[in-house]
Structures
1.
Amino acid sequence: MRFFITALFVFVLNFAFGQYIHPEAGVVFTNTEVPRVDVYIEESFLDNILHPDSLQNNTEYPATFIFSSSEAQDTIEEIGFRLRGNTSRTSGKKSFKISFNTFQPGRKYHGLEKLNLNGEHNDPSIIRAKLSWDLFNGQGVPSSRSNHVAVYINEEYKGLYINVEHVDEEFVQSRMDDGSGNLWKCLWPADLKYKGSNPLVYAEPESWGRRAYDLRTNVEEWDYTPLAEFIDVLNNTGSGENFRCALEEVFDVENYLKVIAMDILIGNWDGPMVNKNNFYLYHNPSSGRITYIPYDLDNTFGIDWFGVQWSSSTIYDWSSYSGESRPIYDKIISDDEYRKRVSYYFDEILNTAFNTDLLYLYLDDKLDMIKSFRVDDVYAGYDYGYTYDDFLTSYNFGLWGHAEEGLKQYVANRQFFAQDELVLEDFPIVLDLMDLDWTEENITFRFNYYDPNELDQIEFRYSVNNGPVQTSAVTVDGSGVVEFSYVVSETGFMDVQLVSRNINGEEWSWPRCDTRRINLGYQEVPNIVINEFMASNSSFVQDEYEEFDDWIEIHNPTNLAFDLGQLYLSDNPNERNKWRLPNEFIGPQGYVIIWADSEPSQGENHSNFKLKSEGEFIGLFDRTENNFAPIDGIEYPAQNTDQSYARIPNGSGDFQFSEFVTFGSNNDIMLSTEEGENFDLKLFPNPTLGSIQWSCTNCNATEYWIHSTNGQVLESGKGKEAFNTPLPQGVYILKLRINGEHVIERKVIKL
């Protein structure tokens, strides 16, 4: 029953359209059980972390991390461990941060560099933040994944925690079509008020040394210009259509209208609309717009420190609870059209997600799953004296102090008062671009639409290379999706606008006030190739999880390094941006292995698709700005188990079944095997997990060299055993001097 209710809840919440990617929960954020997290750390290090004089210290100490669930049993050595949070640092039940890359740069666990283990010391129910994250994700708002975990430190049970996905470059790369932009963490007093035309004024620390707008990515460039432009437009543009046109050029307004509605319904006063605190802003270079990302959602569902009953608070004057202006809310809600659209989201959320019928089931289901882990959580009572009985009571009834409303009480009251105050008015059609699909000869546009009245007409208006504006009618079938395809007859660019009209004559366009310029044809693509792959790997080589997954080798045959994070791999020629390559550089003449295992949660080198041994397509495609132009691809035939399909000559030749698997190396290795056979030379074991030995009939082979496939000598010596130097997984050349005069070469595979 638990799995059914959780799945139903997520399904019902996903009614809203949007443009963001939403990763699956995966192993780390599973919601069907409570995994166990163990941390083992030297007691002296733990004493330093918990010492009263060190509570604000962010020094990370080495520790061992163990994750245990029905799906995984993983041990990670040398993780970084420290306290996290604000008020929780001085609380009895602490919150902790796990960093997988502190002592081993670049290391990730299921694609994650960090985890946040939140003690939820303010929340007697230990559920409010989790419920809020699920609601936001269901709306299509880019939000953290989360789940409950049981935390142990040096075998001592620290209690029931909420494990929350860290917002960082991995987060934005997994949600956005372009994850290379600037990400700002915004903390008190981030009121988004205009401070001046110099972008760096927003980078100035506050009086106690912390920045209100803290740049977390691309810190070398230290560019606050997109943030400053957004704040300038928000504060200094007039009203009406001019305001809407200007704001929608620099800010994803539709996403934030959903946030306004959801924040007010869940009672999240700790964001920018009241407490000018706890949110992220991300600037997407592809769209040129800033996206709002929620953060830290524990002060919700009736948690109160100001004497406000948030369940009955007004839904149209929320910034009044701050006692001062909040432009991110005031400017938007005072706009007549935006106010109508926020009201639409209020209504949709109340009817589909935020209601007693659904949320009571959700709360009962989660309580049943987590309550046994609260019984022995003594730390949960250290701060406010909450007992296990209080924990159970808090789901239905209020307690005292800051938690005077029980969860179900809050939901029922919030639903009633919001619906009672809600004013629904007609507004023009909402159009939202879903995706663009390019080929050399054709571009297809797909849009979502919502029409509160009856849709009458949609027109696609466009001009090519500054030519005359042309108009084409778009078929509307009532599905909520419209599509228009354009046949490309010349290279250059196209300026496009989609214009809709309902039966009342009201119009809506995308983009609202201008056109969007789209490239026709393709720019020059980089010289990066699919060089070798294995579509049936049963025993040849294992990934870092000791799984025999299929793999794809990417090769850079040029003399310049290249950023792979701009490119995409796919097994479907009609879905070119199916999986974005890892954000890493491939060196000159370099090789990168991608595990085609449909398990992206295992790390950034694990794709979201598998290879079919019976034959299919593999394609490599260019960046978003070049319309996902084809770079390389192959429609391959049925494959043999543990045999690779490789380009010969290396990097440029046709694909063929390879006699030797050259995993992560040059396919052109030519080996002197004839003389070796005359001497009956034998190597064992090959492939090898460690050292390799050899024997030779009627000969003496004692001097050896190990070369990389590029010719570099990595080890040499005398004897009958090699690989005494630790070397990474890959293909190597072993050279042996026979009887003092012959040099024999053999390929050796290190697993």
2.
Amino acid sequence: MPITFQRRCLLAMLLGILTGCTPYAGVVSVHPRWIPVNPPPGALAEVQRKIVQAAAHEAKSPLTALGEYLSAARIASDSLTKNPGDISVRNAYNFAVSRVICELQKAKTDPWSQPLSVPAEGGDFLLTHTQDPRRLWDPSLYHFTPADQLELKGSYITERKLKEGLGAPLVATGRESNRNAQQDFTLPKMYYGVTALIRFDNKRAVVSFEDPLATGQVTFNGRAFPLAADYTASLAVMLAESKPKKLELARLLHPGKYAGTARIARLQPYDPDKTVVLVVHGLMDSPATWTPMINHLLANGRIRDHYQFWYYSYPSGYPYPYSAAILRRELDAVEKRYPLRNKMVVIGHSMGGCISRLLITDTGDKLWNTLLRRPLEKPEMASESRSLLSDALVFRHRPEVGRVIFIAAPLRGADMAGGWMGRVGSRLVKAPESLTKAGNDLLQWAVFHAGDLQIHGLPNSVDTLAPNNRFVKAVQDLPLTPGIPYHVISGDRGKGGNTTRIPPCRSDGLVPYWSSHLDGAASELVVPCNHSAHQHPQTIQEVERILTLHQASPVSSPKTHP
């Protein structure tokens, strides 16, 4: 079969994978309506009357509607002071606060720069907000959407995680791109779930935006209330608007064009008291792939109280030792900005597991001397090539890593990467210019043996997943760093097979069991699924168990690297 035809077939298959599937997330705007009830005379009846009056003004006079909704929220607030257990009044308060935020957006008003006078029966309200010294908590930077106005769907949004309580859950979307994203280790555009409260002092209405990932309850009118939350809406809006799927294939085939996307990003504000969970995606993927797991974990109060979630994103066309070198540089930088008090947990799926393996490995000069004919101290190659190859082949384990979870990780390679499909796929990946010179030097000094994968330049990601790749074979001889527990989760598509390399082999369809298995694991679980094991409910429950175990015996991070 001509190679050009094979290439076309494989490219068509890759495009089909990305374009033929259900979108990761979809968001549909709805207009929530208050469902009238027939309460006895009292606070709830008065709140309902105000809500109905406000709804009648929404279309023609948002400012008038705003005043009525503020009146409804105030009446409900006063009632909750006397009877905090009245769920119906609490729900009415939440509904009114949501509509206040909605009408502010519709009226294109700005109560964040200076107080806003809002006409209302019995006198104008003076609407303002609680000042927050944190730069990224300036409400003028965001557009707020009440979560009850959003219907969510998509292949990664399989369940909506809500918490009952006081307040109006909102999605805060950055009005502009975050210019300091690289330095702050944040997402290029902010998407975050917050919960709005309005506290009243006579006719003064003060809006506060609470972080449901930082606190589970609030003090309101002198009483403690659980804080309402929607943990899913902001994730869904982020996926629907950023459309990460469109870049996943591009970052595989043309990694050099997306070099700036290789970075760590925080999913939530930095909290030095919370342990970092760093998730690392795999080949032809993006951080979006972790949505089902993170969505579930954030709804667990114990996990939410003790952990914060960070992503490592990278162009998956890079050879994974190079991606691991970039990650080490990112960890150095993030440690200076956000020093950790507790050792982090790293979770790697597929090739992300291979990257994670290198974080708990000490190489010395063993890899270099095994793969190259010139000793490390006398490389006889260009300084740029020496630096790049040294970063990829000579490193120590990361002291800030306290536990690793490997999910469907081809730690010993995958036969598909070494077969004809993998070879065609490898040719589709365009090597970045920055790596081409190092690739030529590598070929000049590389040591190959019979049966080794033959390459024509610096290996790319597909090459470094082949079982007969020299790096893949050599790294197996290096032990994992003692004292760092690790766990293995593998997928089994249910077709049976051997756990050894003798065909037929048990597999998730891409990674065989013999490649993902690791002796010495603190635990091992095989889940009945394909390669997307990290999204399977049993895997998510196992990660939840492991994080609970880790939290019970946390390890402090050293202040300096070894």
3.
Amino acid sequence: MIEHQDSGAHYARYLLLSGHVQGVGFRPFVYRLASEFGITGWVENRIGQVAIHAEGRARDVQQFEQNLTARAPMNAAPILKEARNTATRAYPQFVIRASSSASECDIRIIPDLPVCASCRTELFTALDRRFHYPFINCTNCGPRYTLIEQLPYDRANTTMKAFPLCEACAAEYSDPEDRRFHAEPTACPVCGPALEYQDKFFHQHESGAALAACVQALREGAIVAVKGLGGYHLMCDARNDQAVERLRVRKPRPHKPLAVMLAPMQVPDYVAPNQEQLRFLHGPVHPIVLIKKRKPDPLSALIAPGLREVGVMLPYSPLHVLLLHHFPGPLVATSANISGEPVLTDNLSVHQRLDHVFDACLHHNRAIVRPADDAVYRDIAGKVRPLRLGRGNSPLEIDLPFTVASPTLATGGHMKNTVALAWDRRIVVSPHIGDLDAPRSRNVFAQVVEDLQHLYQVTAERVVCDAHPDYGSSRWARNTGLPLSLVLHHHAHASAVAGEYPQEQRWLVFTWDGTGMGADQTLWGGEALLGEAGHWQRAASMRPFRLPGGDRAGREPWRSAAALCWETRVSWQAPIASAELVRQAWEKHLNCAQSSAVGRLFDAAAALIMQRHQSSFEGQGPMELEALAAEGDAEFIALPLTRNQQGTWITDWQPLLPVLTDTRLPPTLRARCFHETLAHALLQQALMLKKFAGEFAVGLTGGVFQNRLLAGRVMDLLQGAGLRCYLPERLPVNDGGLAFGQIVHSHFAAATTRDQSLR
């Protein structure tokens, strides 16, 4: 800020801005602002930063400086990093200099952005040269993360270098007054990427004819693989039962819900969103949002069978906008991948791996450097929260409330994997990668690890991973040769909540999920951890039981149901041919790890109430159970809470079994009773620990709290009892937030070790 200066005196300031200032039209904004206030000098892109020399009358320079942040472009988030007086140079005008790489790095990567209103208008203006051009974009919209090869963010460092600008586009690109000044992905039908349609009968079409052929195929009930910003979607008519059934059979994906893409005007006709859900649908991320179905449901009943919600997104690329403009209804838009793997991104791999699934392809020739699946959000406890990071909201950058001792890479978990890179006071969390069982998932995992370090020009000097030795992420971490820290799965979950809400100092965090290795080598998943990030004590848990088959129980809920019944001698006949052999192994303690996981209790309840004995995707039984419970009403059962010899409070689930197995009671009542009972059991643990351990904030984390009904009831009960309660808002509550928690936990654990060594 300029102080004690003659407001009319000639004056000069050097300004350095970091934050999101590249790829968002910040330099032309600075140029126009300089013209407005009569400023001379220059603006220059550096690696992740923008430098400015501004000179003019003191009051004009002051107003210019103030407006740099106050009036920044809509996708920019500038941070004034340095501001100082400098010598005047008597520049005759204000210019935009060429980018410089000779500077300290402070890189911020912009996620891919949905098509903006201005480009939408041009897209449908018949006389515009980009009329119906499916790759229209400007500095306010279009791909970023998925096409950047290296920084600084210039066209030559993106996949757009394959498309030399025509004379008209070059003129826009070079004009600081134009909306497309240095819009690196800019193009037009003359010089830019183009569509290509191929079907199984070797029919091929290009450009506008390709789009028309795709729409016609969708109208006829075909399944089409469509290449978007961060990968391919498998698309078909969302009202056509036969088309949806063929997609499910071919993929195969018998039950897992499918996302639906709707034109904005179609939303109220197909789903019943609230205002907050609408805000997220139309917001800068344009994610998939889980929204309540209409009754009667106008979509195919095969879209989300057994569930009350459907995942909906709006068209976010100009290609999607055109598809929904020409196709008269909603489209299934599910990721084109092998189940659990990252979305496919290139023409050849789609044909090699999914040729048996689709009837035709709509390709384009703009290369995708790295996959970015669609982000997913759900309204839980009154706020729309992420269930999956992806296209539009990641890489997710968070300012840390501490300084990382050395650049650190966290490798996350095995399921729903994300990775994180932390340095100084910053952390970047990657988009969703997937489950690390398949070779392609592990290859993409390694690529993302390398990409984050390459793009941000930060080299990890240490690695943090899950303590489970057999996770794909942990095996990779052990082979880096870097100093390695191990973090227990649920300690990382708890530290993720604590890291997102650093204003709280002492916590009781409920870490409820399906599995994770605990400190005693058993399978945790129903724990209440007391303490602070880096230092957790197991204060409460659920009664453990021997789980037959280990990891197989996640896809075979009958195993959890049988284990509870065998454990308590409740009569229940598992309708599985191998059940007696499994019981014999269970009685001999063969392949039967101890588990306290609430996720497995949900599996058991789904099997006992709904006969969901086998699951075709992770969490199927619990999701269906939640939908069933939402239709019912019931009181809770008071569960015994006792303290074991180790001082841990244990809730006994056994009194639930008579209700869960009583087929005379309506399934909706039994399902609702199960939810209410667990919510009150959690409250009971929290109140007991408050009595013995004093004040704390309560955190909820782990995949179980994706359950909207349970999480909402828990929050209501805790807040009604006067307790402060938190659910993640920026990060997924599931394993997608583990990498962030690993960074937070390892920092505070190491800090305590350093402090103790100095004493």
4.
Amino acid sequence: MREIININTKWAFSKEAEQVPEKMPEKWYWVTLPHTWNAIDGQDGGNDYYRGVAYYAKEIDRTDFPKADQYYLEIQGANSSADVYLDGTKIAHHDGGYSTWRIDLTDVWKEKSLLVIAVDNSENDFVYPQVADFTFYGGLYRNVNIVAVSHSHFDLEYYGGSGICVTPTLTENDAKVEMEVFISNAEEGQKLKYVLKDQSGTIVADFISDITDTKAVLDITNVHRWNGKKDPYLYTAEVSILCKGEILDQVSTRFGCRTFEIDPERGFILNGVEYPLRGVARHQDRWGIGNALLREHHVEDMDLICEMGATTIRLAHYQHSQTFYDLCDERGMIVWAEIPYISQHLKNGKENTISQMKELIIQNYNHPSIVVWGLSNEITMKGPSDEELLENHRALNDMVHEMDHTRLTTMACVSMCSIEDPYIQIPDTVSYNHYFGWYGGTTDMNGPWFDHFHERFPQIPIGCSEYGCEALNWHTSNPEQGDYTEEYQAYYHEELIKQLFSRKYIWATHAWNMFDFGADARNEGGENGQNHKGLITFDRKYKKDAFYAYKAWLSDDPFVHICGKRYVDRVEDVTKVTVYSNLEEVELFVNGSSIGKKCAEDHFFHFDVPNVGESILEARAGKYQDHSFIRKVDTFNEAYRLKEKGAILNWFDITAPEGYFSLNDKMETILASKEGQMLFMNMLQQMGQKEEQSSGMQMTPEVLKMIGSFTVLRLVNLMGLTGGKITKEQLLEMNAQLNKIKK
């Protein structure tokens, strides 16, 4: 019987070493896996986190492990590439930082050996991802195991798979369950025993065959369907290799029996019933931890997503931990799983897209939660598709359908990608990443855009794979696009919920993002090194108000929530207070006195509250209550106003003569004047070429239309994010020129 022995403890680590050690190093750091070397510098801004080679070393004594015919090293995540050495000899290489892979140690492992894994997250042109808005944490950030097996065993080397593939086919109340296994070193006379168990562990079907019969079909009558969050029922398939009645090896996997379809008019349909997919995208990393997560971190993430009431998760932008896929199965989440083919097509990267997709499918085929395989994300960021990009997508799409006929393909398109681009016709379904109301445009552009797509391509299921805006602990009573306040984020998501959730044909919506996440290149919002579009903070400690807007629409657990708890000091005499609840009626009390009851079909209750002295607010909805506190002040509390850390200029540093333009004015206003238009085009010529080369973003008519709602300062700061150098002197000179142009 196989045994899996974890070897996470007592690894020596160095990112200063220049070569593979010949003996156990004495002056390296001791670390315990999971581990990343970018837990701090990958989250503090500056885009200067260490990207290079680092070494992990461990002595492994064969006598410390169970006796077995063969031994395999199992690495569940090494970002981004890795070389494995045993006693100084290189025995394996792997490209792709998010999947499991294994190496046969049997013939090279001495009684005592020095195991060294050189992990490399440096830049190259052939391993994805290379360009993306998140940190590529280096390290051995998931478990490392030794797998001890008999000579005859289920395959451990084929793309990191489990050696068993389960495909249920449903007919009314019954299911035929095909089990296929992959065996190494089968011998004559051996047998295979196939077993199906229900969720309680009771055997519902079994079958014994010759070792050569690696496929079997077993029947389940009165099948209990896996039915999403309503009833995520799981069966277990178990297969054993038998020799004279003795079990040599055994594998098992849970699976679910369900049907689904994605209809361009009705959206997602689960087991014949419409089942709206409304949820979030998830990045796996955490504050101070990076992506070196423990099981409790995954469980906490899933608990929070379930509390919000989501029915779907887009697992962006890479293969996630098996722990989290298992949780998705158990909790009934509908999952979009994808590879990190993202932002920029690499001319030398096709082979890597193929291998990462094979690993994703082979390692995750049995998860009933997964319904679509994602081919790419925003891959036309640098401009329209070309033949090479199209060919790569066609190859991926065809391969996925060949490997898995039970699921569909999809991809996430960048907002500026024309709906006429031929690459959107390749997958079975498509979604768009839209930030109208944040990165240009206005919130009311979202719904009409989807209506236009649906009218133009009524046969293509269309979804929204990303939408969101950033919010930190900044506050205002007059939220505006681009101010990074919690109040604007709440308003933005109120608007997007109403527009997206009301369109049944949108097959799935995934808010970006469930949690703030590391993006070391960012210096936005006053806290560098993060993308703050999360509904919950990076450390999972604070649920932003927008989180409760979704809970009000999606969760069946009754609650009431007063928004703006961190916004205490307010200058206005009458202040707006928003309450979210999934109950029909909310009553608001100020210092114990009711100021009225309200009903709201959209679950968003808005009250005008007299702001005098200090006020304790209490919202009641049925037996549920929530409390807050506000205080009247004479001058605005500057602690609530964004001051960007490391910004070249803040808005309050800019001279803005009355009646004349400045960097604080919106692009659409400036472009409406001839002089402003000329100045802006000149700015693009002087600076934009460098930024365009760095970001790859082309100033197409679609892009120019989107940026109209940006202030010049915000647009320039965002252009600076892409790597271009814009000096304070350049900005001041631009502002001086704008100050000469009358509005």
